[in-house]
Please model this.
Amino acid sequence: MHRHGSYARYRQPTGDEQFAVQRFLCRPCGHTVSVLPANRLTYRPLEVKQIQAHFDAQAEVSSGLDPPPGPVMAGCLQRAWNRFLTRVTVLANAFGQILPAVIRSPPHLWEQLRRTLGTAEEMLRFLARYGKRSLLGDYRCLQPAP
Model:
């Protein structure tokens, strides 16, 4: 892989700040790859710790973000939770036998994931390594090149 520049991405949903995402080129196949920092989610202007705190509050594992998010971030976090709600079966299957056999609800799934893997960052690593998935989607960017 050869470093192939970078592009700017929003740090927060408000769009006030940006950070650089490094891009790399595979010369033999011609594909480019962007490498996100470990604390970022694919296609979301949120940090993993923000998602984790919000999901914890939704699953009643903790009280959530402190201080509470502003309206723009709150909307972005709620959209992420709504997406998680649609992926319960996919995620339960992806994590397989490390979870209890019966998952009663999306909050129960989140609670079990936190109990088993600890952090949302560890969940993302597990999904990327063993399932080529993410918490909120099965993105083409996580699939191996043809």
Q: What stands out?
A: The chain has two domains: 1-35, 39-136. The chain has five helices and three strands. Residues 39-136 form one domain.
